[in-house]
Each structure stands twice: as structure tokens, then as C-alpha cells.
Amino acid sequence: MKRKVVQIAGFTKVVSLPSEWVKQHNIQKGDNLEIREEGNTLVVSPESAHHLEKAVIDLTKTDTFLRRFIDVYYRLGYDELEIEFSDPYIVSRIQEEVSRRLLGFEIVEQKENYCKIRSISKGVEEEFDIILRRVFMMLTSMSKEGLEILKQKDYEKLHSIIALEEVNNKFTNFCQRNLNKYGHMDDKKTTIVYYVVTILETIADAYRDIFKKALK
């Protein structure tokens, strides 16, 4: 499919949209479209292309809550999770997990045996590069500050460094979610960047284990 570029007002260049595509996606005058660069290619999509993805998690047959129950769905890019459970204690674990590990998510509805968590921070996905940079900076801080504390043998200060591993988990979870849901702005780099994020999470785990051993 080819489209001729039209120049208007001296500088602005315009390309028309295929009429069938416009009808299929109900594009109206004044609507916003998402335009993403992938190398030398421009990808155009309706603003609502990333629809709300929902999942139901049934925990009624287990008394054990594992963080992977909601971690996996978060990283896969789901926007809303309805969680059913029989043990009322589980909701406190869910609250803790959301607070500690799911950036941009909150519990929006809660009943005796049911709760709903949802992404509430529209636009946070645009901060991918900022969050990834923070992960690198945090690991640098963990290594430099941790080494200095070990040299000084002021081991109690290691508790604050160890706590950064949880923050790192929150940020790397967000990055993995973003890559699964939207991909990297350069589509060819999605897989390698995802792998890099996984390694960064592993490095933080290694620092945590080193400092915990030093405390003992």
C-alpha cells in the first residue's frame, strides 16, 4: 500500500490514512493516534489500541499465597486483576505485594473474599527510559556504598542497602511489564533489553545476599 506525501503551508508534510483502516477502527476527526518509530518505519495505531487486559485469579483452593500469583500477570502486561480467595489473611499479603512490587498498581475494590487491583497511573509507561536508568544508578549506589560500609565495618548500615533490592525489584518488574506490553521503541531491541533487565535484577539479588552474609 502506497501513499503520496502532500506538502501544505510550506513545511508540513501530510499522508492520508487508508479509508478501510479508518472505518475499521472508527477514527473520527480530532481523534489522537499513536505514532511509534521502529528503525526507519513509522507504526500508526489508534490511541486505544492497548486495551484494558483483565485476568481472574482463583485462590479459593489454597491457603498459601505466593507472589508469583500476581507478579506474573503484572509482568505480562495485564491491567486489571480480580482475585478470589477464601482465607481473609491473603488480602493483607496482596496489599503488601502491590505496595512493594507493582509500580503503578493499587487495590481499587475489596470485599471479604475478593479484591480487584488495577493500573491507575496512566502515562507511566512513557517513563521506561527514566526507570531503567534508575535501576543502573541504584545498582551503582548499592555497590559503592556497600563496599564503603564493609571497609569501615559499620555493618548495621547494610540494612538500608539491602532494602534497595526490593526497590530494584519494583523497577525491574515495571520494565519487564512495559517491554511485554508495548515492546521497545526499537522493536528489534525488545528481547535483548528484556534480558538486560533480568540480569540487572539478578545483580541486585547477588548484592543483597553478599550484604546479608556480611551481617551474619
Jot down its keywords:
single chain; 216 residues; alpha+beta; Methane Monooxygenase Hydroxylase, Chain G, domain 1; 3 domains; 4-stranded mixed sheet; two-stranded antiparallel sheet
Please outline the helices and strands.
Blueprint lengths: L5 E3 L3 E3 L4 H6 L8 E6 L2 E6 L7 E6 L8 H9 L3 E6 L4 H12 L3 E7 L2 E6 L8 H25 L5 H25 L7 H26 L1
Can you give me a brief rundown of this structure?
The protein has helices spanning 19-24, 68-76, 90-101, 128-152, 158-182, 190-215; strands at residues 6-8, 12-14, 33-38, 41-46, 54-59, 80-85, 105-111, 114-119.
Overview of the molecule:
It is a single chain. With 216 residues, the chain is an alpha+beta fold. The protein is 48% helix and 20% strand. The strands form 3 sheets. It has a 4-stranded mixed sheet with strand order 5-6-8-7, with helices on one face. It has a two-stranded antiparallel sheet with strand order 1-2. Strands 3-4 form a two-stranded antiparallel ribbon. Strand 3 and strand 4 form a beta hairpin. Helix 2 packs across helix 5 and helix 4 runs parallel beside helix 6. The longest helix has 26 residues.
Return the CATH architecture of the largest domain.
Answer: Up-down Bundle
Helix tally equals: 6
Which value, in Å, is the CA radius of gyration? 22 Å
Mean pLDDT: 87
Task: Write down the CATH class of the largest domain.
Answer: Mainly Alpha
Strand content: 15-25%
Run of helices and strands: EEHEEEHEHEEHHH
> What is the strand arrangement across the widest sheet?
5-6-8-7
- Globally, the shape reads flat
Question: How many β-strands, per DSSP?
Answer: 8
Low-confidence stretches: none
Helix and strand composition category:
alpha+beta
- Termini Cα gap: 67 Å
- Proportion in helices: 40-55%
Largest sheet data: 4 strands, mixed
The CATH topology name of the largest domain reads Methane Monooxygenase Hydroxylase, Chain G, domain 1
Number of domains: 3
